[in-house]
Amino acid sequence: MPDLALKAEGIEKTYGEGRTAVHAVRGADLELTAGERLLIMGPSGSGKTTLLSILGGLLTPTSGNVFLGEESVYDHAPSARAELRLRRLGFIFQSFNLLSALTARENVEVPLRLAGLSPREGHRRASELLERLGLGEREHHRPRDLSGGEKQRVAIARALANQPDVVFADEPTANLDAATGQEVAEILCRLGCEEGKAVLIVSHDQRLAEIASRVVRVEDGKLREDE
Asked: Cβ contacts of residue 180 below 8 Å, gap of 6+?
């Protein structure tokens, strides 16, 4: 049986108080195993991005907790939580979030340097990842010189840099055309199938259901799993 990569218990997130309170997430329980590709879908305002932020240690829940293996995320102080994210989690964003002044390789090196790798080892690891993603000849280009698909592949390489247990992808195909979105979807599929990473995707893109091991829908902050 695959190892449990992530577990969420009783996640609640409420903004405001009293009659004006907004319940963004209501009693969410979720498990994600190594090698699994979980797709979370739902309309705008349903709470799916809030849930992803909580699962990724970016947003503190009103109640409940998240565990990476046996390690509690929200029993850590914020500074220790940042270290936990650096060591064990990778993030891919809709808008790529690349640093415009840095080359593709340098963008991938950022989390490696933060984790304490030497410049030489950081160069080697970043170049290796970009080569695997078909960007070996583009590693010295800055984001302005890359296509949307190339930027997203750099972002994927950066997410994988520290060999995380879980990769979170927030609308990873939203800014891409159909063909490039399919390419990115196939890369995310390989992460689970070939590398054993747990991949959690939040998206409106129904095509991603084709690569998902499991689909969970968010409606008014509550989770419902597709049968």
From this structure: 147, 148, 149, 152, 173
Tokens of 126: 């970043």
Q: Which of 33, 86, 211, 102 is nearest to 201 (CA)?
A: 211
**Count of domains in the chain?**
1
DSSP secondary structure string for all residues of 121-138 = HHHHHHHHHHHHTT-GGG
Q: Which domain holds residue 50?
A: 4-225
Buried b (16+ CB within 10 A) or exposed e, 62-82: eebebbbeeeebeeeeeeebe
Q: Which amino acid is at 217?
A: R
CB of 66 within 8 A of CB of 73?
A: yes
Residue pLDDT, tens place only, 150-177? 999 999 999 999 999 999 999 999 888 8
Could you tell me the CATH number of the domain that includes residue 213? 3.40.50.300
Share of the chain above pLDDT 90, in %: 70
Partners of 71 in the beta sheet? 68
Kindly report, residue by residue over 105-130, the tens digit of the pLDDT: 999 999 999 999 999 999 999 999 99
> Pairing between strand 63-68 and 71-72?
antiparallel
Structural tokens at position 165: 């247990």
Helix (H, G, I), strand (E, B), or coil: what is residue 117?
coil
Strand 4-15: give its sheet, edge to edge.
22-33, 4-15, 63-68, 71-72
pLDDT digits (tens, 9 = 90+) for 33-60: 999 999 999 888 888 989 999 999 999 9
